[in-house]
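Inputs:
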Amino acid sequence: MSAELPVYRRRRPGRWVLTLVVVLLAASLARSLITNRRFGWDTVGAWLFSRTVMTGLATTLELTAAAMVIGLALGVTLALMRLSDNPVARAVSWAYIWLFRGTPLLVQLLFWGFISALYPTLSLHLPFLPAIGDVPANSVITTFTAALLGLGLNEAAYLAEIIRAGIVSVDHGQLEAADALGLSRGRTLRRIVLPQAMRVIIPPVGNETISMLKTTSLVSVLAYAELLYSVQIVYARTYQTIPLLIVASIWYLAVTTVLNIGQHYLERHFAKGGSR
Amino acid sequence: MMIEATGVRKSFAGREVLRGIDLRVARGTVTCVIGPSGSGKSTFLRCVNHLERPDGGRILVDGEPIGYEPYRDGVRELRRRDLARQRRDIGMVFQRFHLFPHLTALANVVEGPVGAGRPRAEATEEALALLDRVGLADRRDAYPAQLSGGQQQRVAIARALAMRPKLMLFDEPTSALDPELVGEVLDVMRGLAADGMTMLVVTHELGFAREVADEVAFFDDGRIVESGPPGRVLTAPDHPRTRDFVTRVL
C-alpha cells in the first residue's frame, strides 16, 4: 500500500450490538438488585464484617493455606516417585493417585470425620515388634485434622500430576547438560528442573488454590466453622439465608481476586529468561 | 593417554550403532571425529562421559574406567554421585548448547563449580575471566534467549571450562549455527587447542579438522574406517569410503 493513501478504520457493528445487549441486561440486573428487597442488603452490611464471619473467613484461609502446603509437599514427593527409576516408588505413587482421585472428596472428608468408627484407637503395628502408641482416634483426629487431611491428601493427588507434567515438560537436554556438569540429582532438580517446570506448573496450581479456597466449604459437612458453616449457623437462627450466602460469596470473590493478582506476579517471576 | 576406548559397542532397539570402536587420544592433543550422519560419532562421544551406557567394551579416561567400578571378577555401574565426580573432569559442549534458559550467562557458568562445592565468590571471579576469554564479558547479565547462537555456544564452552576439565568433548558444536556465526566458535576452540587442552571433537568442519586436529578418525556405520593425521586422512585417504566422504563434503 502506498503511504499517501488514507487508511480508514473498518466499522465493527457487532461490537455495538453486543454492547447494547450487555448494557440492557446489566441495567435490568442492577434494577433487580436494588428493588428486590429480599436481597437484604442492610443485613449483608450488618454481617459482612461481623465477628462470626471474620472468624469463619480466617478459618477458611487457614485451611486453604495448610491444605495447599500439605498438597504441594506431598504432591512433589508423589511426582518424583512417579518419575523415579524405582518400580516400587512408581507403583506406590500410582496407587495413591488412583485412590484419592478416584473417590469423591466429600466421601473422603466424611471418612476422616468418622475415622473413630473405623479405628477407635490409633496404634502402629509392625511385624515382629510390639505395637507403638495406643491413643483414642478422636483425640488425634480432631475436626480440624480431619478437614485438613481430607483436603490436603486429596489435593496432593491432583498436584502430583500437575507437577509431574511440569517436570516432564523440561527439555531433556537440560538434564544432560546438568549431568555433564556433574551436578547432583538434588541440585539438578532444585536449580535446573523445577525453576523451568514452574512456568508450566504455576497456572494450574493457581487454579487449584482458588478451587481449594471454595472447596473448603465442603468441610461444613464436618460441622467445622469455616466461612460457609459460619454463615449457615447464623441463618439457621435468623432465617436470613440469602443475605448471609451473599456475605460468604463476597468474601470468596474478594480472596479469589487477591489470589489472581498473586498468581500474576508469580508467573512473571518464573518467566525470567523466557522468550515468550 | 587421556582416552583409551577398546571395543565399544552400543545398540539402540536392536540396531547396532557402534560395532567395536577402538580410539586413543593422547594428553594435550585434538582428535576430530568425522563421518556421515548416523555413523555413530555422537553416540561414541556421549559414551565417553557415560551419557550413553555402552553395551560392551570399555572406556578409560585418564586411566579410570568411566561409569564403572571393579566388582568381584568384573565391573558394575558406579553410583550416581561417583559418576558425577568423574564427569566434573570431562567438559561437554552440545550441538544445541543446552544453556540453562532461566539463568544469566554468568549464572550458567557459575552453576557447575558452586554445585561441586567451590565458594561462590571464587567461582564468580573465575567465571568472569572465562566469559572474558570467550569474548562475552559484557554480556554476563544476558539470558540465553537474548544471545545469538554463536554467543550461546561460547557461553556453553565457558560453562564447561569452569569445571577445570582435563578433557573437553564437543558434539558438533557448530552444526546448529548460522554460517556467519561458525567462525567465532571455532576461534574459541582454536584458542583452547593452542593452550594444550585435550579435545575430542565431532564435527563436519573439515577445514577446522585439517588445521587444528592432531588425529582424525573417520566413522562409518559404527566403525572407525580410517584414522591418522589430518594430512593423510583428509588429503590422501586410503579407504574408498573416506575418499568418497571427503570429496562430497569439501
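Residues 4 and 24 of chain B are 5 Å apart (CA to CA). Flag for discussion at group meeting.
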